[in-house]
Amino acid sequence: MAYPLTPNTGTLIAEGTAERPIRFTGIDGGKWGHVLVEAPGVASFRHVTFENGGNDRSPFHATLIVRGKGDLPLYRDVLVDHVTISGSVGFGAVFTGVAGFKAGSTDLAITKSGSGDEPFPLRVDQNGVGTVPNGNYTGNGVDEILIAVEKESDGLRESTTFRDFGVPYRVAGQSLRVEEGPSGATVLRIDPGVVLKFERASNLEVVHFTGREAATASLVAVGTAEKPILFTSAAESPRGGDWRGLWFGKIPSKNNKLDHVRIEYAGADCKCVLAVCNDLTDHSSALILTNLPEEGFSVTNTAFSDIAGNGILRAWSNDYQPSFVATNTFERVTGCAETLPASSLNACPNPKPTCP
Question: pLDDT tens digits, residue range 230-285?
Fold first, then answer.
């Protein structure tokens, strides 16, 4: 195992079989610490069971901890294949420092794990989410995969897909950002049935900064009538204004597509003042467009529900003012379903209307 200050690359290979699995456990059923794999270390776990790890000496009270180098490219040298983590005091596994699972990882089960402030089966940063393997993440303190946003300003800079594992994702604390990456355009795809829960004051940003340049990052969230995608609050008793919603910076790309999505309990303070022609004192909204998007940008078959503020904030100055209301529904939205942009001369009706 390569540890800080060691010049060599350590390797750990623990590969059992279905008939002869390998088992890591505490003496006499007691709690033990953890397995740490740190870049540039390499590890392979096949047909392995980890039991009762994560004692008080373990960071995050976790059983398996993987640490990357802290920047891209994503560190992906830990493979899991038919691995079970059971009885971890805190997280079953933690991937931190821009780390993810190795390609080919499969059949990870984390169960009977999590307690206190670390009740979740798995903790990953934003760049590692798309590497999570298929498996079972139920039977824990809280059956949610925690997305711990590390270095918010870095954002998600490699195209990835958030897949549906039958448990929600929880975005902890900060903005989940999709930004241009080292290889150019970044696309976040979200599969049908995915549930994303946002903690208070967090949001999903597709390019943080405003400006007149074309955005090269995009969001493709396409659900189905049977399996819609849900963006919602992480609060135990949710209400409008629990989280900030979706934000599209620069000139949103035509590649953005939201279809069969539900956005609920959004509308926390956006800390923004944008160009709209409605008589509003607060620009907080479930979905904010800071510029006129490219033709092809679409929001269809989407439900906006229990929003403290507006449904869609159209914040631009242009005589072309496409509407996004037609196929969408708005329930218990305290502001406008969608706001009115300014004209190309930055002019507004006088007096300003309450809503279009």
Answer: 999 999 999 999 999 999 999 999 999 999 999 999 999 988 878 889 988 888 99
Give every CB contact of residue 206 below 8 A, 6+ residues apart in sequence: 177, 178, 188, 215, 217, 218, 219, 246, 247, 248, 249, 252, 256
Please give the Cα distance from 142 to 240 (Å, whole number): 23
Cα separation, 321 vs 113, whole angstroms: 51
Q: How far apart are CA 106 and CA 318, in angstroms?
A: 50
Q: Are 266 and 242 in contact (CB under 8 A)?
A: yes
Burial of 69 (0-12, 13-18, 19+ CB in 10 A): middle
pTM of the model: 0.94
What Cα–Cα distance (Å) separates residue 295 from each residue in 228, 255, 299, 335? 24, 9, 12, 26
**Strands, E, within 92-153: which ranges?**
93-96, 106-111, 122-124, 135-136, 145-148
